[in-house]
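Quiz preparation item.
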């Protein structure tokens, strides 16, 4: 099909029980661009309809097995999404954007209802790229266990707004949520709504020299509690899965791998590639490694891989 480009394919290797993930087990990154205006759907980074349907089915099986689903003839999942990331960590934003796009591939009768759950000071400004797929926002004012002083302060902050002051706990019950995702700290084993923890990586274990003693203790305690109390946990790579099982072991079926993928902005396709090549003096073909210059990004590994390629099959490969 003209105008269709397969950008990347990240397959979850079925090497252990996490292949039956309650989230998307196979993520295909695809850019679609149709020449005819009536079929133009821009670009999306999504799993297929069949895979999205499998995601929803397995999510229901997971919740049902945990005794969470109500006894209904026709069940519609209602998922509360906790925003992550921002301009200081765009990966968290991209991670959730991809999940929302994937779930919206489902047929309407199978599609879960999605909501952004926002606390004091939270916004969805960084998620506007979702356009018509941007879930509605639901606001809470405080947590039930917070101090009276904080509850009053946050309630006064909401005075005059369109959001009625409400606790986080009350909001999840009012929305009748099936689950909350992703949480980076524990809500407790007795929380009234099912919740899914998210641990992107274990940097403090891999590179403890970049953390203070207090930070190391805090992270250990946070991760251990989340692994122990969450109905389910998600990590973002096979390496992170192995790290979790090494330092915070738990039953394999209680952990899933949901990998990061990159979203290319639509404006990438607007210009003429020749202008970029000429402007930076690049060859026609090159390998792009768009990563931050942090030590843990391990540029040394990329340089070593390029050296091996240059000495073997690809002597003219260029790295940008």
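Solution:
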């Amino acid at each position: 099909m003209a105008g269709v480009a397969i950008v990347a394919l990240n397959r979850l290797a079925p090497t252990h029980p996490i292949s039956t993930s309650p989230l998307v087990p196979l993520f295909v990154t695809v850019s679609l661009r149709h020449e005819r205006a009536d079929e133009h759907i821009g670009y999306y980074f999504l799993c297929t309809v069949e895979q999205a349907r499998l995601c929803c089915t397995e999510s229901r099986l997971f919740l049902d097995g945990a005794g969470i689903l109500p006894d209904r003839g026709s069940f519609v999942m209602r998922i509360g999404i906790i925003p992550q990331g921002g301009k200081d960590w765009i990966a968290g934003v991209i991670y959730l954007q991809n999940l929302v796009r994937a779930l919206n591939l489902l047929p309407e009768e199978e599609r879960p209802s999605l909501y952004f759950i926002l606390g004091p000071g939270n916004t969805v400004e960084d998620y506007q790229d979702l356009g018509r797929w941007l879930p509605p926002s639901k606001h809470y004012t405080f947590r039930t266990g917070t101090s009276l002083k904080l509850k009053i302060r946050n309630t006064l902050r909401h005075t005059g707004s369109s959001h009625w002051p409400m606790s986080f706990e009350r909001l999840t019950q009012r929305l009748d949520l099936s689950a909350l995702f992703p949480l980076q700290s524990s809500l407790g084993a007795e929380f009234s709504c099912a919740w899914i923890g998210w641990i992107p990586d274990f940097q403090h274990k891999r590179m403890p020299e970049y953390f203070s003693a207090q930070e190391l203790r805090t992270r250990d305690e946070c991760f251990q509690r989340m692994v122990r109390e969450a109905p389910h946990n998600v990590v973002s790579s096979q390496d992170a899965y192995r790290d979790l099982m090494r330092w915070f072991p738990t039953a394999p079926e209680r952990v899933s791998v949901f990998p990061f993928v990159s979203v290319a902005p639509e404006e990438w396709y607007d210009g003429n590639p020749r202008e970029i090549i000429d402007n930076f003096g690049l060859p026609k073909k090159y390998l792009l490694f768009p990563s931050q210059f942090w030590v843990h990004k391990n540029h040394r590994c990329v340089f070593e891989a390029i050296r091996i390629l240059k000495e073997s099959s690809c002597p003219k490969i260029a790295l940008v």
